[in-house]
């Protein structure tokens, strides 16, 4: 019984010393995640997407890594669309002739 009480007191004293900072400080944390490797000097290609690997987190993938890749893909797709398609006049998709089907009221 006395032995158990002494062990509890020693454990509480050790916790108090560490909490007060006498046990030394923790080393600085560093990011040990592998980088998502994508080319920076050219647009992302299909093969780049097939080989990309995201680091795992506790419940799946790290959202910040996936969000960064998706944002870059969205930007590149928008840029490609702007370069290849000139802006056109809006039209009604149901009416291929482009007229609204209503007589003009002049």
From TrEMBL:
Show the ranges annotated as biased composition (Low complexity): 94-106
| Domain of life, source organism | Bacteria
Region ranges (Disordered)? 77-106
Gene3D superfamilies from the UniProt entry:
6.10.250.660
Q: What is this protein called?
A: DivIVA domain-containing protein
Q: Where is the composition biased (Basic and acidic residues)?
A: 77-86
Q: What is the lineage of its organism?
A: Bacteria, Bacillati, Actinomycetota, Actinomycetes, Propionibacteriales
């Amino acid at each position: 019984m006395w032995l158990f009480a002494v062990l509890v007191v020693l454990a509480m004293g050790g916790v108090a010393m560490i909490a007060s900072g006498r046990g030394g400080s923790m080393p600085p944390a560093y990011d040990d995640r592998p980088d998502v490797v994508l080319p920076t000097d050219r647009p992302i290609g299909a093969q780049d997407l097939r080989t990309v690997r995201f680091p795992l987190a506790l419940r799946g993938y790290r959202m910040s890594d996936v969000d960064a890749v998706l944002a870059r893909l969205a930007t590149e797709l928008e840029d490609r669309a702007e370069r290849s398609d000139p802006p056109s006049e809006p039209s009604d998709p149901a009416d291929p002739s482009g007229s609204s089907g209503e007589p003009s009221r002049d």
